[in-house]
Design brief:
alpha+beta, Dna Ligase, domain 1, D-amino Acid Aminotransferase, Chain A, domain 1, 3 domains, five-stranded antiparallel β-sheet, four-stranded parallel β-sheet, 18 strands
Length: 325
């Protein structure tokens, strides 16, 4: 039995489930935001030992903890739905917090089962600081970087580079009201423009600034254990995608290519250091022919590559989940 921790909106597990089902392997999809409304659950410790059971109320499909052979921890969300809501919002908040506490404890409880994605490892592995430390240790180029809320420190950093990249650290968007969402993409700015900003512009939050690296093209490497899928992103072919390829993703030219040996070696060693089985790596290939490591998303998006190139990443993930059946 394969357990997939996910959410209702995520389509990434869909084809994985189809493959596993076609191979005769049972799959239980737990959409965690509706833990209290769509599922009945019970965890126990008694003379029998410890175990748990979860039943999908709508389908009557049941998962027993001792039957799980592998887990795909694919971006579960906090419980947000209640069968009955109180007029007192604090009571609603408490009920959802307790459900989220149960969910987190359950994910920790299952941490020793083979898993792609991990509640234990994913969050610390997302640290850009830790990633750059390991990249340095492994001899990989990274952009010069500054995290600071000090105008003076950022000023000194900016004076070393003509152009800079301004990036979000952790919050990639903000809702300005019920309808308007502001998404933060990488911005290319001149050092002079940045230096003209007032002190308060830097002191209000933590700033993430890097030297801007000129690009020949970009690479997204999707790594599943020892398998590396390399997608070449022709981000410089259109102006919209030159700074951040996500801004031009609708018309982006992609190509699956053989993985350069230095990048394959780096990614596999990097995942070992981070205790990960999966990661989505972003690199720049400079006009001078150097590879520059930008980041690794330990639970990143990969379905867009499959849809645009036809390369069947779903089957690869399904194969790795199935091998312990």
């Amino acid at each position: 039995m394969i357990l997939i921790y996910t959410n209702k909106e995520d389509v990434h597990p869909t084809n994985i489930i189809r493959y596993l089902s076609s191979w005769g392997i049972s799959v239980f999809r737990l959409n965690t935001e509706c833990l209290l409304t769509d599922y009945e659950f019970n965890w126990w410790a008694d003379a029998r030992g410890t175990d748990f059971r979860i039943r999908n109320i709508k389908t009557n499909y049941t998962l027993s903890g001792h039957d799980i052979t592998a887990i795909y921890d694919r971006r579960p969300q906090k419980p947000t739905e209640l069968l009955l809501t109180s007029d007192n919002e604090e009571i609603n908040r408490y009920n959802l917090m307790e459900a989220n506490g149960f969910l987190n404890f359950l994910r920790y409880y299952t941490k020793n089962i083979f898993s792609i994605g991990s509640i234990v490892e994913d969050r610390p592995a997302a640290s850009k600081m830790l990633q750059m430390q390991y990249a340095y240790q492994l001899g990989m180029f990274t952009p010069h970087t500054c995290f600071s809320n000090s105008h003076e420190q950022i000023r000194q950093f900016a004076q070393q580079h003509k152009y800079l990249s301004i990036k979000p650290i952790d919050a990639d968007s903000v809702f300005l009201d019920d309808h308007a969402q502001k998404v933060f993409y990488t911005q290319r700015v001149s050092s002079q423009d940045l230096l003209r900003q007032p002190d308060l512009a830097f002191q209000q939050t933590a700033c993430f600034v890097q030297e801007y690296i000129e690009k020949q093209y970009e690479l997204r490497l999707t790594v599943v254990e020892d398998e590396v899928i390399t997608c070449k992103i022709y981000s410089q072919e259109q102006s919209a995608s030159q700074t951040d390829w996500r801004l031009g993703s609708d018309n982006l030219h992609l190509e699956i290519i053989p993985t350069p040996e230095p990048l394959q070696t780096f990614c596999l060693k990097f995942l070992q250091l981070m205790h990960l089985r999966f990661g989505c790596f972003d690199f720049i290939r400079t006009p001078a022919g150097e590879y520059v490591f930008l980041e690794c998303n330990p639970n990143g998006q990969w379905l867009w590559i499959e849809l645009q190139t036809g390369y069947d990443i779903s089957r690869i993930l399904a194969h790795h989940l199935a091998k312990y059946e």
